[in-house]
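Record passed on underneath.
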Amino acid sequence: MAAHIVRSTREMACLVDGGISEERTIVLRRAHPNAESPTVHLEGGAAHRRIDGRDEIISDNQLQDIGKQIKQKKKKKKAVAGIDQDELLDPLLLADPDSCFLEFMGVSIHHKISSAEGDQREESQCSSSRSCRLGLPMILLHGFGASVFSWRKVTKPLADLVGSSVVAFDRPAFGLTSRVDYPRKPSSASMAASTHLSPYSTAFSSLVTLSFIDKLKGSDKAILVGHSAGSLVAVDAYFEAPERVAALILVCPALIAPLFSSNSNQRDLREREDRRPENAEIGRSDRENIFCGILLFLRALRFRAQVVIVWIIKMILCLLPFFCKNLLSEFLRSYFGILVLRFIFDRFGVALIRSSWYDVGEFTEDDINGYLKPLRAKHWEKAVLEYIIALFTSKKPKKMASCKRRLSEIACPVLIFAGDHDRIVPAWNAKRLSLAMPGSHLKVMRNCGHLPHEERPEEFLAIVRTFLSTLKDV
């Protein structure tokens, strides 16, 4: 019975693709006599459908529609966010007219460059602003799942603002940057592999960032702007070569603020917290107040509890490599891991992008298409999985120590953005980061989500202009 159904189904497909043959009779039977679906059969070149004991003639157009519906259902099963996964293209074929590619350690880095040259009108308007006389290039680093598309509204204005070139590049695993097959066992064929550095790791993206500073002309320093997970790349690049970074602008940074600081910084953090407007009512004259004493005791207890929690987390992380990392890597590299990732992107991808906006009504169809465009590139899912694996398994070079422990060592000017309605990275995390970075400036944008540079580009640029005007001797 099963073989007969398979044979008949194949013949039915041949009819749909090649037309109806009048020389043979083909029958599509139900798998069970009690099935509700009607029997469809062809006799003498005419298609019949039996419903409730009656025969109805099916035209050729109706038969072809049935075949199309079957094909559409098959395509839908293989689609991710509406993109057919059987029709993926090489990233080079998806490039825009202004796209550029840079070969770095075997990876073709997709990027776009905006220049302020030739904009005499803008230069004359900004002649009184010091920020326009900086002449420092700027490098934009997007977040997880994004691409250079996310900077489209501010790239050219930022170039006019700094009076130099602005580069936005797709970090490996995202956008149109090439997807390389990173081997599990490094070989001498790949320079990235020979250094035991995954091209999908944060450390690799930091080296790419520094290489762009070398490529840009006019200055040996640059201003790094990181959004969300791109902020981690910006901070890592600073610690790799602090003399090459003139300033850091961290937009809704997905960099978890330290739960506690070293003993030398705890007193400074507490003093800075006391200077916050919300803590202004607790002055020195009130220190003897019993309620203030209770508050200070609870604050000290909080720091002690943080030490215990962090110690427990460290112990878990020490055991994690032995039990989980290899197992997780094998699972993610398996075909089942790819299916799971496709399912997540298909079911929650667009919803996650929408949740990044405060006013979803401003999120247009063009925005959706721009964010989903990288899903049309070949091996996009494998690259994202390798990126996730690199987060857990990649080992940084010894000279690139944990940046979270060294936030207080950042000496360059730092501007931190936060959205008061950010559902991805809450604003309180940015506030704690600003406390951990002496001299940093925090700006919380009202009625804004996780994408200040897209939702409120004019206000974003105004804040950046004010920040850059304060830079001296950079």
Summary: The chain has a mean pLDDT of 75. The radius of gyration is 29 Å.
